[in-house]
Amino acid sequence: MNEIRTLLWKEIALEWRQRYALSGMLLYIVSTITVCYLSFNARPDLLTPIVWNTLFWIILLFTAVNAIAKSFAQERLGRLLYYYTLANPQAIILSKIIYNSLLMLLLAGIGFGFYVFVMGNPVLDLGMYLLSIVLGSIGFASTLTMVAGIASKAENSSTLMAVLSFPIILPMLLMIIKLSKNALDGLDRSVSMDEISTLLAIDTIVIMLSYLLFPYLWRS
Amino acid sequence: MKNWWKILTVIVMFYVIFQGLLGTVPRQPILNESIRNLYFHVTMWFAMISMLLLSVIYSVRYLRSNAIQDDERSAEFAKTGILFGVLGCVTGSLWANFTWGEPWPNDPKLNSAAVGMLIYFAYLLLRNSFEDEQRRGRISAVYNIFAFAVFVPLIFVLPRLTDSLHPGNGGNPAFSSYDLDNQMRLVFYPASIGWILLGLWITQLRYRLKAVHRKQLENLAERPLERINS
């Protein structure tokens, strides 16, 4: 537990020291939203709630892939070797998952704020929508962290990251889009219980598997 | 007799092909004669799931043992699984063209299957991007287990939550309830077993070919040494 806290603190300190990466990601999500906003300017009436919702999640997906891909790639070989001697791999993966979840929550929160600011807000049940963002951020972070770990071991890791992560993240993405659509339409909250439990189940499976499998990945 | 199951496979497959194409089947509206595709389409998915499950089992074994044989078996099982998956998509597409009017209707099960295939194509791509055998084995085993854990909810859970054209989903009655009569069962169950056995056989042959290839490479690597010694 202590180890995880130390490693988590190290990730945050590292991120804070190279703030350009963080601001780069923030700028990435803001400029993507701006591009979408301006592209829909020609026919704003086409931006139905469904399109609004799907577009938001696709923007978030691309942001997540870009933000998390660097969580292993940015570590230099020497530093990785150093961790190898110091920390246990399970603590490393858990700290990375927690850190990436926090990062995604921050990015998604700011992204959602800006998205609502320029594209309007058709959400009827805001609390539920925010819950879907929280679940989505954590789910994206936990799945993509493991995939980033796998992809970073190969040579052309940026292509591999996209190819490996998109199909794997899809079940989660579909669930989240459905959940957030329910929130968007302001349906009764009991309707969404199915989606929430499935999402939580997928999250649990993914985190458990990352926890079990990461030591093997780490060794190579 | 070590190879009894191969003889069994041949007999079962002959039985399934003849009985499947010529045997009596119940008359159903819309389905008509295309109901015979049950023996060739549905069984493909059973065979695919079995192959992929075996592939995951060998991946787990590889992570425990680090024996390169386990990794090769796991990869060959995954490849056979992909073959059955593609065949399942093709036979399903044929069937859909006759019964639902278009080769690829927008159906959650079809889309899940397509995404599942993408996951495993990515697995093959990942395998090919490593030079070192042990490294390739370890990382693709990790991905294989990870992918299977996502693949199972994708195939079994997601389509059941939404409406589907397939029987047994979204309020449609399951196939067995109205047209899988006893006559068809007599072909359907052997067909499932037969395709799985055939998959095992294909995998075994491919694995042996791989093993021979590996041996050859090892011999080639040793020969210069022999020459120097003699």
Automatic annotation (TrEMBL), chain A:
Database matches in InterPro entries: Cyt_c_biogenesis_CcmB
One record GO biological process: cytochrome complex assembly
Subcellular location: Membrane
Entry membrane topology: Multi-pass membrane protein
Gene Ontology MF, one: heme transmembrane transporter activity
Ranges that cross the membrane: 20-40, 46-69, 97-117, 129-151, 158-177, 197-218
Database matches in Pfam families: CcmB
Claim: Transmembrane is one of the keywords in the record: yes
Protein name stated in the entry: ABC transporter permease
Source organism of the structure: Arundinibacter roseus
TrEMBL record, chain B:
GO cellular component: plasma membrane
Keyword Metal-binding: no
Presence of keyword Isomerase: no
Boundaries of every Cytochrome c assembly protein domain copy: 11-157
Single Gene Ontology MF annotation: heme binding
Membrane topology: Multi-pass membrane protein
Keywords: Cytochrome c-type biogenesis, Membrane, Transmembrane, Transmembrane helix
Pfam families in UniProt: Cytochrom_C_asm (PF01578)
GO biological process: cytochrome complex assembly
Subcellular compartments: Membrane
Main location (coarse class): membrane
Residues that span the membrane, as ranges: 7-26, 38-60, 81-98, 110-126, 138-158, 186-205
Protein name: ABC transporter permease
